[in-house]
Amino acid sequence: MDPLAHRRFVKMNGLGNEILVLDLRTDPVEVPAAAARALARPGVLPFDQAMVLYPPRRADTRAFVRILNSDGSPSAACGNGTRCIAALEAEASGEPRVRFESEAGLLDCRLEPDGRVSVDMGPPRFGWHEIPLARDVGDTQAVAIPGHEALGPASLVSMGNPHAVFFVPDAAAVDVEGLGAALEHHPLFPERANISFASLTAPDRILLHVWERGAGRTRACGTGACAAAVSAMRTGRTGRAVTVTLPGGDLDIVWRHDGHVVMTGPVAYEFSGELTPAMLGEAA
After folding, report:
1. Helix orientation angle between 222-234 and 79-93, rounded to the nearest 10 degrees
2. What are phi and psi of 92, to 5 degrees?
3. Is 78 among the catalytic positions?
4. C-alpha dihedral over 39, 181, 226, 89, to 10 degrees?
5. Quick one: which of 201, 208, 100 has its CA closest to 163?
6. Digits of tens for pLDDT over the chain (284 positions)?
């Protein structure tokens, strides 16, 4: 029998970004890419990202979190998913502040009085080798992507995962699926990239549509919102606090003077249950 069978799950979302939570802290087992793909099938447990909780590696954290995209590929960061697991842990512990560890580093989270969750996403990284890129492109705040020069330059940044942000006149009018799918796999991005299209709608507001690597077009992307906000701030388009509007709703982003990016937004509980062999039927 599949070792994941009969494990409990929680289905949540952050602004419509579909999140599957698997808490494996008491009996950790691997979640293979094939199992993630099987669970993400339509009619099973479709998700954009799975947040898999493992025993903490540090005494000051609640869990070590591994993140899987719906295609089974790993991701080091997921802002909406982090808010979801923070809300669950804060409710279970009765403490408004919780900390997790992921491949991207430590994630300090706080349950706000209004029910939203804030996450310290850490500092953005701008070096070509940190994003990473296939080669040194010079200043990463404005890079022409070969073959896509008509879009204008992209602002490139890592928020624990690689992002390319294009500032366009109307983000809602862009062919997100067509351009996103092509740009995700561009040779400039050896680990693929999340592709965002952003428009300024006010001095402190950004409209954003995102194609997520390994998941496709999503209703919201927390790291994408952080990347777009930081890119707008870095290029002088906005101040250091903005609201990012995605198809699923709003996220408030602040780039603090200590270099850390803090994201605040809502989460929603959908349902919980138990994984069955049928759900995992194509995992072999």
Report:
1. 120
2. -70, -35
3. yes
4. 0
5. 208
6. 689 999 999 999 999 999 999 999 999 999 999 999 999 999 999 999 999 999 999 999 999 999 999 999 999 999 999 999 999 999 999 999 999 999 999 999 999 999 999 999 999 999 999 999 999 999 999 999 999 999 999 999 999 999 999 999 999 999 999 999 999 999 999 999 999 999 999 999 999 999 999 999 999 999 999 999 999 999 999 999 999 999 999 999 999 999 999 999 999 999 999 999 999 985 44
What are the structure tokens assigned to 189, written together?
């991005």
One of 84, 109, 221, 226 is an active-site residue; which one?
A: 221
CB 261 within 8 A of CB 226: yes
Which residues, in sequence order, are CB contacts of 9 under 8 Å at separation 6+? 20, 21, 22, 45, 272, 273, 274, 275
Return the amino acid letter for 274.
E
Q: Which H or E run includes 24?
A: none
Per-residue b or e along 37-58, where b marks 16 or more CB atoms closer than 10 Å to that residue's CB: bbbbeeebbebbbbbbbbebee
pTM over 0.90: yes
Determine how β-strand 117-120 pairs with β-strand 105-111: antiparallel
Quick check: is 84 catalytic? no
